[in-house]
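Example 9 (inverse folding). The structure is encoded as follows.
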């Protein structure tokens, strides 16, 4: 596997992690229910930890990790800010599930397919497993 390709792919994945961190910050700002807010803060901390893990992997491969979600991520973030400020907690949870599923999991699976060495792929798969746990937890909140 080409090391430069791995670094490039991991940096794109890292940009996605930053998008998730910022999306959760936006959600947290609009949540009133303290235990739900605490749950979202916990998920955001997981994403920050994932960003650190990926940054370290990129550095170990001799690359320089990105430090933000990039221009496309910023534009998407601004579009996301257009969602109604008076969304219910249920709507916020649904937005978070959609973000985790579509951007966090599905797009990452497409992004990394055949583009990472085994160790990097293993790291990404562990992160995706945690993202799936987040989705399951968020879905459980809708049914409680």
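The amino acid assigned to each position is listed next.
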């Amino acid at each position: 596997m080409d090391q430069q390709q791995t670094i490039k792919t991991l940096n794109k994945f890292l940009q996605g992690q930053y998008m998730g961190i910022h999306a959760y910050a936006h959600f947290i700002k609009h949540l009133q229910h303290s235990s739900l807010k605490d749950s979202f803060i916990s998920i955001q901390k997981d994403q920050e930890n994932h960003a650190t893990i990926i940054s370290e992997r990129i550095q170990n491969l001799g690359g320089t990790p990105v430090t933000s979600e990039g221009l496309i991520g910023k534009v998407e973030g601004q579009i996301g800010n257009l969602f109604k400020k008076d969304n219910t907690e249920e709507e916020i949870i649904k937005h978070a599930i959609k973000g985790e599923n579509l951007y966090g999991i599905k797009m990452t699976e497409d992004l990394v397919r055949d583009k990472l060495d085994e160790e990097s792929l293993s790291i990404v798969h562990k992160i995706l497993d945690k993202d799936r746990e987040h989705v399951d937890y968020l879905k459980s909140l809708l049914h409680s």
